[in-house]
Amino acid sequence: MGVNGILLLDKDEGWTSQDCVSKLRGILGERRIGHAGTLDPLATGLLVVLVGRATRAAAFAEERQIPLTEFLPDYERFGRGAPLKRNLQIVDYADEVLVFWDEMSRGSAYVIDACKKAQKPVHIVTAEMLEETDDTP
């Protein structure tokens, strides 16, 4: 059985979105990996990666007329601060925010703080929490 799910990757500068996908294919041993949206090599921030059956998520939503909203960083307008501006747009748009946080990412910490300031419910999931709920053999 392969790996299935959605990964939220905090992409470092210098990596293309495709670089990230290629690296994850090797790490996870899964060929069916794609990304939602593209970050250029100079961009840092959230890259949504779809793995296994989750690669059908966008088609699933479209087939069922579930609206999807994509937030892309506007580098022409905001320069290197574009990902943080984009994160604020997401917080503003959302009713609640789910953050998968490694407890080190400054971008995720920024989102958590922005949610608190905006009085938006924020749910934080850490790697430790995921390990505690992992029921795979």
Detailed description of the structure:
Strand 4, helix 5 (106-117) and strand 5 (122-126) form a beta-alpha-beta unit. The model has no long low-confidence stretch (mean pLDDT 79). By secondary structure, this protein is an alpha+beta fold. Helix 4 (82-93) packs parallel to helix 5. 39% of the residues lie in helices and 20% in strands.
What's the short version?
Helices cover about 40% and strands about 20% of the residues. With about 140 residues, the protein is an alpha+beta fold.
Q: What is the SS-derived class? A: alpha+beta
Computed over alpha carbons, the radius of gyration is: 16 Å
Shape: globular
Task: State the distance separating the first and last CA atoms.
Answer: 12 Å
Helical element count?
6
Written as H for each helix and E for each strand, in order along the chain, the element string is EHEEHHHEHEH
- Helical residue percent band: 25-40%
Mean pLDDT, to the nearest integer, reads 79
**Count of extended strands:** 5
The main sheet comes to: 3 strands, antiparallel
Instruction: Strand order, main sheet: write it out.
Output: 1-3-2
List the uncertain runs: none
Strand content: 15-25%
